[in-house]
Amino acid sequence: MADNVLMAYHIVKDATDGDVQVLNTKKLYKWRITDQTKGTPQIGKLAIVKTRFTKRAPVLVFATKEVANDLSDLQPVEEFTDEEPRDEAMQVAFQKLLGN
After folding, report:
1. Measured in Å, how far apart are the chain's first and last C-alpha atoms?
2. Domain total for the chain?
């Protein structure tokens, strides 16, 4: 059985400057990897996921794992991309989360 859960951080607009995107590190979110998910997950790359509020939201991949539990309550991952965040501050924040 392959990894079926994505753990990632949301990319959101900065509260003080709405034109800047930042990494929301308050919580690690989870999504369901399905047979319809396109691409291959890579740590530090972007993924496109469904949320309760939108059909396509970018997130930054932290990890994947395999679980045997029922995942029907998790929203699906639409696509894994080969893109990295363009903002250097976001990349630095992510490296700190990884412990590098």
Report:
1. 30
2. 1
